[in-house]
Amino acid sequence: MTGPQSVSLVLLLPLLLPLGPNRCAVAQRCPQACVCDNPRRHVACRHQNLTEVPTAIPELTQRLELQGNMLKEIPPAAFRDLPYLTHLDLRYCQVELVAEGAFRGLGRLLLLNLASNRLSALPQEALDGLGSLQRLELAGNLLEELRPGTFGALGAVTTLNLAHNALVYLPAMAFQGLVRARWLQLSHNALSVLAPEALAGLPALRRLSLHHNELQALPGMALSQARGLVRLELGHNPFTYAGEEDGLALPGLRELRLDHGALQALDARAFALCPRLHTLDLRGNQLDALPPLQGPGQLRRLRLQGNPLWCGCRARPLLEWLARARVRSDGACWGPRRLRGEALDALRPLDLRCPEFGAAAEEEANELAAARPRAPAGASGEEAGAAGPCPRTCVCVPESRHSSCEGRGLQAVPRGFPNDTQLLDLRRNRFPVVPRAAFPGLGRLVSLHLQHCGLTELEAGALAGLDSLLYLYLSDNRLSGLSAAALEGAPRLGYLYLERNRFVRVPGAALLALPSLFSLHLQDNALDHLAPGDLEGGRALRWLYLSGNRLTRVSPGALAPARELEKLHLDRNQLDEVPSEALEGLPALLELQLSGNPLGALRDGAFRPVGRSLQHLFLNSSGLEQISPGAFSGLGPRLRSLHLQKNQLQTLPALPGLSELELIDLSGNPFRCDCQLLPLHRWLAGLNLRVGATCATPPSARGQRVKAAAAVFEACRGRAARKAKWTPAPRPGARGTPMKGRWQRVNEEYKGLEGHRP
């Protein structure tokens, strides 16, 4: 066809073709609070205090970022006008409710990020309409339970992240519908019970993360439902024993992590039904002996560091088995004294001998007895393992060794629990005092929950006989003090939770009774000063949480006793400067939280005392207006993450010394993109990271990324280069122009150019 008819058809053709995501679209409006990148179909409305999903977002948008707003609620069909959306970011939006059908119409969505919100529940149909979703992020919420069917419409999801919530129980078929899920993250919850069928219906699951929970026994029956598991992470749980009776049967398992728990004994056939196990991580437990393992014939790596291994003659079978099975191991001998500190893999079986008689034999027997955890008071042999009756108002579960009297209105601590109880839950009752010897016969107790009980006092000897106690929860009570006498009966206590009480000083005297204290939680109390001596008893302390208090000062030397400290959380206090002198003598500090303090400025060398160890530094929401060029000097290559978001920074020096950063967040700062910011622009341009820094001024640059705004800084480069070319070299001995003065002049010239732009 030729002539006018063919011309008409060509003109009509665009009207006949349907509009699709690959079709070039005409310019569309962009919401006022957002930045729209139409060629990339990317809209960002970050940290704008939005209270509802903005309207007028271009229909073809594929990536929508709304993090850092105040949405509170996601209503039904909130995104129905965005059918091409593939990535939706709703982090830090204070979301408390997701209505049923909130995401209907998003049939192309691949990633939904709802992390770090305030969700306490998910309605049955909240996630309907997401048939293509591959990744769902729900970490950092307040979820306490999962209802079967919640994930029933998510047949394409491969990764589900539920870490850092408040889950205590997984019901049967909790994840029904996730037929393609490969990685399930459930770490950092309060899980103590998994229903036997909790993990049923996950045929594709390859990795399960359950570390940092409250599991009192290895949930072998529940775990064995996920037959395809390759990697299982169970570290940082308080169970003390693993054996064949736990029933762990995972034929494809290659890596099992049981690190940093409370294991005191391991049966030789504990993993007999895991024939392909290659790596077993048992670091940081209480194992003084280990039998040759039967069943995992492909085991090649056994990690034993941090266990009190006893290298007497009874360890010969272990060494012989390691050599015969060609298993690489680490770990060192705790005793006897002649072998203390010797690497296990450097010993030969003949090096391990038992003195048969005399003083040497008696001395070694005494050493071994001292090394082992003490038996429960008043119990031994069959009597120690016999389960006793259960108080009338409580529930005692023999299989899990859990006893619970939660919310029964009790006015006194009940007695008569089974002797083998490992977890005792007395939360939400009404007894103001825990009396002396309140828990008789519970020498095997590992975890004790006393939250929300109106407690004002623990009497002397309250914890008498709790030799195995590792976790003590006293949060949300009315305690203003603790004595050493009250805690003396729990020498192995490692985790003490005192959040939301009435402490005005750290209970330093009480810590003297806790030589094994690993983690101390004092968030949201009324502390106003950390003074020398407050942590005198915290010499084993690794994690210290003091967030949300009224601290105005941390005195030099206050932290000195805790030389092994790895995490220090001082966020949400009233500190007006970095307590640099107090950080002296902390050679192991890895994480420092200072966000939410009125710091205002950072001086030179503020973090130099911890420069050789620090990996994560949080300074967000600290009112920072100025950062000295040498503020981060000394931090060097170990720093992995730097959080500076939501401050008042208009300028920031380049940070070339931080060469190994994996994350730097500069979002939510009102950067002034002039020549003074050119060094930062150049440094950021060389980083393969998303930093979130955008220009606030001048108006012509508003919303542009500092890292990518090459045109904004072009005039600075040109003027600076010409000035360097035209300026004669200074005579020997002559004083050169100060760098600050040079940049000021270039900046003034740039501002002049800015005023003459069309």
Layout of helices and strands, plus pairs?
Layout: H1 4-16, E1 35-37, E2 42-44, E3 63-65, E4 73-74, E5 87-89, E6 97-98, E7 111-113, E8 135-137, E9 159-161, E10 169-170, E11 183-185, E12 193-194, E13 207-209, H2 220-223, E14 231-233, E15 241-242, E16 255-257, E17 265-266, E18 279-281, E19 301-303, E20 309-310, H3 316-325, E21 328-329, E22 333-335, H4 358-371, H5 381-385, E23 395-397, E24 402-404, E25 423-425, E26 433-434, E27 447-449, E28 457-458, E29 471-473, H6 484-487, E30 495-497, H7 508-511, E31 519-521, E32 529-530, E33 543-545, E34 553-554, E35 567-569, E36 591-593, E37 601-602, E38 616-618, E39 626-627, E40 641-643, E41 663-665, E42 671-672, H8 678-685, E43 695-697, H9 710-726, H10 739-755
Parallel strand pairs: 2-3, 3-5, 4-6, 5-7, 7-8, 8-9, 9-11, 10-12, 11-13, 13-14, 14-16, 15-17, 16-18, 18-19, 19-21, 20-22, 24-25, 25-27, 26-28, 27-29, 29-30, 30-31, 31-33, 32-34, 33-35, 35-36, 36-38, 37-39, 38-40, 40-41, 42-43
Antiparallel strand pairs: 1-2, 23-24
Report what the structure shows.
The protein has 758 residues and is of the alpha/beta class. Helix content is 13%, strand content 15%. It has ten helices and 43 strands. The protein has a 14-stranded mixed β-sheet with strand order 1-2-3-5-7-8-9-11-13-14-16-18-19-21, with no helix packed on it. Strand 29 (471-473), helix 6 (484-487) and strand 30 (495-497) form a beta-alpha-beta unit. Helix 9 packs across helix 10. It is globular and about 80 Å long. The model is unreliable at 1-27, 357-361, 369-387 and 722-758 (pLDDT under 50).
